[in-house]
Amino acid sequence: MTRIGFIGLGIMGSPMAAHLVAAGHDVTGFDLSPASLEKLVADGGKAASSAQEAVSGAEVVITMLPNHPQVEAVIDEVTFDDGTLLIDMSTIRPSTSIDIAKKLTNVRVLDAPVSGGQTGAVQASLSIMVGGDEADFAAARPFLEVVGKTIVHVGPHGAGQVVKAANQLMVGGIYALVAESIVLLEASGVDPKAGLDVLAGGLAANRILDLKRESMIAREFQPGFRIDLHHKDMGIALDAARAADVALPVTNQIAALVAAARAQGYGSLDHSALLKVIENFAGRA
């Protein structure tokens, strides 16, 4: 049993913390939402009244927060015990992850953003891309295996965030193309279910077609990962591109589509709601 402090008990962090409790660890969590703390207690964990209380005495600290300002606020607010293993599973700018690792000289730091959304968090099937020292990755792996299935050390500090940025630009692009395919099929009088069923069995097959084609055709956009968060992630991807001094023209287009979705009032919907934006452009709303 390991003492774990878990900060950020949202739609992703809450089931992840529950899995760690079920695996036999002593988990103390903190979140600004009283309901989230109550759920952790119901799952067998402990509720902290502050981030400092959650990290005090913890051998491992996991953060799962919305963006870099929240992560930086926690880093500035708390004092970690020497040798603590800090696993930041938030999706933030690579430069921020690098800065945190430089700043916390008494702490072992990993950036370990995830892919898989709420479903992956609930099913403990997340893909986890990890940046940091190899030895620290080895120490973190037993905890990561509790919440994920595909766990890869991708490089030094910040590398995990770069891979997550690549993931998000690809996911956004695939959603946009699936959306355009649905619009084309429907406008041509073709049954979109039959059409996408065929596509899902060929070279165009992908996980979004597997998991989301039926809900997209039905215009069911219950959030598993909100447009608002994908908008934030596309900003991270564009920042990473600028830092690497590369042009990513398709990424810029996808970022504009996601921004349009947010501007059109779809920010609280699932990112599959890019279909609504494509329909608006096509005059099919």
TrEMBL record:
One annotated GO biological process: organic acid catabolic process
Q: Which sites are catalytic?
A: K164
Q: Which domain of life does the UniProt lineage start with?
A: Bacteria
What's a single GO MF annotation on this record? NADP binding
Which residues does the UniProt record annotate as the domain 3-hydroxyisobutyrate dehydrogenase-like NAD-binding?
A: 158-278
Which keywords does this chain's UniProt record carry?
NAD, Oxidoreductase
Gene3D superfamilies membership:
N-(1-d-carboxylethyl)-l-norvaline Dehydrogenase, domain 2, NAD(P)-binding Rossmann-like Domain
What positions does the domain 6-phosphogluconate dehydrogenase NADP-binding occupy?
3-155
Similarity comment text for this entry: Belongs to the HIBADH-related family.
Q: Which PANTHER family match?
A: 3-HYDROXYISOBUTYRATE DEHYDROGENASE-LIKE 1, MITOCHONDRIAL-RELATED
The entry's protein name is 2-hydroxy-3-oxopropionate reductase
Q: Which organism is it from?
A: Lentzea albida
Lineage, broadest ranks: Bacteria, Bacillati, Actinomycetota, Actinomycetes, Pseudonocardiales
